[in-house]
Input
Amino acid sequence: MNDALPPSNQTQHSSDQDKPNTPITPNTRRILLVCRTAPYGNALARESLETALAAGAIGAKVAMLFLDEGVWQLAQHQKPQGIGRKNHSAMLGALPLYDIDTVLVDRDSLSKRCIDLAELGDFTQLIDSLQVKEVIADHDVILSF
Output
């Protein structure tokens, strides 16, 4: 998926190309958080959720994309207390409170891990590999966790 990432110096959204000098402010900047890591192996999963909530709190347009091992973050009924970790479900449940309504999940990642869509929260939207590339290209800032 790295080949689909936009240049890091991109300052305008692709649909704004016909509107020269369109400023991008924190409230109009579209941020995509790409979550690729399992939920409890390290701090990245929790940090991605904290970043999403913080960006949403300042009014940024935030979307989340779960790929690869990151799809495990969305599995319901996890019990991480057995390994001394806190469950992420409360943070996931808070996303809509911060106007984060776009939570995308890669269909291929689910399929490769034999995860059924019904095992995820009802706030997720399933997309295919072509749509993943489109979503990445459609955002101003990409943060990968």
